[in-house]
Design goal:
Structural class: alpha+beta
Helix content: 25-40%
Strand content: 15-25%
Distance between the termini: 46 Å
CATH class of the largest domain: Alpha Beta
Strand order of the largest sheet: 2-1-5-4-3-8-9
Oligomer: single chain
CATH topology of the largest domain: Glutaredoxin
Radius of gyration: 20 Å
Shape: elongated
CATH superfamily of the largest domain: Glutaredoxin
Length: 236
């Protein structure tokens, strides 16, 4: 009933900050039939099996500020890593961990891209701070500046009142479709191992058509749906 009243509200009363930002950015949205109501479309955020929001923004790449950096590279899988703020506490442990293992992502055909609401100049200053002092020196992954907060908002991770992003992690395939989505509270750091496992599982299905059972890691048995009985007969 609440949703019905919401969708029935006259269009002039539906102009929210999120809707205005979506319209102003010119972003397009997937046409899931249930969500074709144009008054609702502006509120949509990134969802699994839907096209990922595309953005360009300033970023620190290999120690230099690069303007108009594209968030998604269709030649690779993209692991999109949102974090709250530069010069904080959990964030440097995550960023250095993902950076130090970026070669493992590259072997799976993926690039890791980190995003926060800080400026590119803040990112650059942080990359110059030694790790022993809480910095992220030696950063191998791009750090995108989301000063307008449009990127964080479009991925559904922005805390509007605080003006910072939750710890969102998205795996996006080469067709620019969101395949996995994980969001944790500000206090909870993420796992590089689990992210690599999820990326491997997504790639396994794309490469072979096989689905992956609970806890699957690369090299273990997968399931070909048409022959699932064979898997269960040997794995029970």
């Amino acid at each position: 009933m609440l949703l019905g009243r919401f969708l029935a509200t006259p269009a002039r009363r539906m102009v929210t900050p999120i809707a205005a930002a979506a319209v102003g950015s010119g972003r397009s949205f997937a046409t899931t039939p249930a969500l074709l109501n144009l008054r609702y479309e502006g509120l949509r955020i990134a969802s699994v099996k839907e096209p990922a929001p595309e953005h360009t923004a300033a970023a620190v790449v290999n120690g230099q500020i690069q303007e108009n950096f594209a968030l998604i590279d269709p030649a690779h899988y993209t692991v999109l890593l949102f974090y709250p703020l530069d010069f904080t506490f959990v964030c440097p442990t995550e960023l250095t961990a993902f950076s130090d293992r970026s070669d493992e992502f590259a072997k799976l055909g993926a690039k890791v891209v980190a995003v926060s609401v800080d400026s590119a100049y803040s990112h650059l200053a942080w990359t110059k701070q030694p790790r022993k002092e809480g910095g992220i020196a030696g950063m191998k992954i791009p750090l995108v500046a989301d000063l307008t907060k449009d990127i964080s908002r479009s991925y559904g991770v922005l805390l509007e009142d605080e003006g910072i992003a939750l710890r969102g992690l998205f795996i996006i395939d080469k067709k620019k479709v969101v395949r996995t989505l994980q969001v944790t509270d500000l206090s909870v750091g993420r796992s590089v191992d689990e992210t690599l496992r999820l990326l491997s599982a997504v790639k396994e299905f794309d490469d072979t058509g096989c689905v992956t059972p609970c806890g699957w890691t690369r090299g273990q048995k997968t399931i070909l749906v048409e022959k699932a009985a064979e898997y269960f007969s040997t794995s029970a």
